[in-house]
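Message: Study each token:
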Amino acid sequence: MENLTNTDTVFKTYFDQTLERCGWSEEVQKGLLFFLGTSIVTANTDQILSRYKDEIRIQEELHYLIRLYAKPNEAYDPFNEIEATPISSAILTYNHIVLNELLGQENQIEKFIKQNPDHTSIISDASVLEDWTFEFKDTKYKLATLHRLNIKFFEYIGQYLKALHLDNTQCYVAGINYYQKYQSIDFEGTNFLSLTIIDTLSPVFKTLFAYPLLFTYHPNELNANHLFSSILQFFYMNANTDIAKYVHQYHHQLFYTQNPRKVRKEWNFEKEKRGVIISQIVHNAMNIRKTMIGNYRSHFLQSDNYIMKELKDKTMTREDFKGSISHLIETYYEMKIDDVIEKSTHAEFLQTCAILYYETAVHAMLLKEFKS
């Protein structure tokens, strides 16, 4: 199929290269790009409104963001290639799983979706995908569950779009046009369904969905940050924000040189063996106590917002502590270290590294001391 969309954007090149480094399948990439197009207005409107008050300027900025990855060409609309029901069913099912199955909030979808007499709402022809609900039945609302749901959602949509021979640019533009069609019919309902998905993205996906805004308004920070660091920052948002500032301060010292700011050579996430990187992270994160941040241990003890709060003022050997952290990662986060080393995509490896660094550092600060 001839590509009649304008693809000559700097951001597209930057974003495509990032997706390639992440290591996901072609299907996941296509599904992600479709939903990026679908949600880019919903995800960024509040940020734009906080920056500008003039209505014309607000519309200009949103228009710019929409066209950052690809500029639709009026001569060709890839949305015309799509029968929207499978995608609407995926969106409906995702919302059903999060709201009904994981959070126990029944009837939320019906509350927000306009009940149109002509049956033209975003989910009027959609149905809940029963195999999805069966897979996530009796699961808990936590990062591991949400990340699996993210992958399933993007992969499902991407498989459908790939079968239609849409390239990545066409997938993104089709997402824009999908949003434009349904928000004109039911603005509140369409945004509600998208926000449920946006709000439950795992840190690595939250990071990527923030790229358009970061690329536009914070390009220097985006370029200076390794993807690992960006994922870590988005992980903080759902962690203990009271002490995250200390962990983040140590992160700057540990992973980056100053003037110029760049990743230290010993942290080659792309080329070094994964097992070596993971061991280095645990070893160095434990040493947060030896820095000036150790003087703020009382701030850590004031909070109970930890997974293993029973470690407060406990004395452990370093090996026992490492064992506790490994158990935490493998049980609570459902990330088996051996699988991360041998099987995970690069993006999921980085997400595991970010979580491992944070959990090791904060729990090390809870201990009274390490036994010699």
